[in-house]
Amino acid sequence: MSPVRVLALDYGSARCGCAISDPTGTVATPIDPVERPATRRGLQRLRALVREREVGRVVVGLPLSLSGEDSEQTREARAFAERLAKTLGTGVPVELYDERLTTRLAQRTGGRASEDSRAAAHLLEGWLARAGGGGGSEEGS
Predict the structure, then answer these.
(1) How far is CA 9 from the centre of its chain?
(2) What is the DSSP string of the chain?
(3) Which residues of the chain have pLDDT under 70?
(4) Inter-axis angle of helices 40-52 and 72-88, to 10 degrees?
(5) Mean pLDDT across the chain, nearest whole number?
(6) Neighbouring residues of 117: CB distance < 8 A, sequence distance ≥ 6
């Protein structure tokens, strides 16, 4: 897989944490969150972010329960990822990635970025580590 900038999203209906990789896919940096991401304005902001930052792939955190089961929040994240994929079109793939424990990691690490965007950075680091390992990523594993 050739290098591509990846945008990770820690979806929440009120606010969506965002983190972006460098083009080599080695560093995840938290950036400003997007307010109300599932609204028309929020989706357009994400679309503009993908264009401005030359993003080649979007990874949306999938909030599975600790037992790996779906919850209402999981279903909401899946629906959001589908809407985002339609908004972005076929040129930028949108995939889901297990985000269990990323919020807890974000709470522990602290920093100047919002907690939501730090959680997105942890999500992206996990995705990049798996993708760099040659296997891409799969939901729930």
Answers:
(1) 2
(2) ----EEEEEE--SSEEEEEEE-TTS--EEEEEEEESTTSHHHHHHHHHHHHHTTEEEEEEEE---TTS---HHHHHHHHHHHHHHHHH-TTS-EEEEE-TTHHHHHHHH--SS-HHHHHHHHHHHHHHHHHHTTS---TT-
(3) 1-3, 100-111, 133-141
(4) 60
(5) 85
(6) 10, 17, 18, 19, 30, 31, 32, 33
> What is the CB-side half-sphere exposure of residue 134 using CA atoms within 13 A?
0
- pTM, entire model: 0.84
Sheet holding 94-98, edge to edge: 28-35, 15-21, 5-10, 55-62, 94-98
pLDDT in tens, 83-113: 999 999 989 999 999 876 665 665 566 667 7
Q: Which residues pair with 128 in a beta bridge?
A: none
Tokens 């790996």 belong to residue: 68
Residues 25/131, Cβ–Cβ less than 8 Å: yes
CA 99/CA 96 separation, integer angstroms: 9
> Which residue type sits at 14?
A
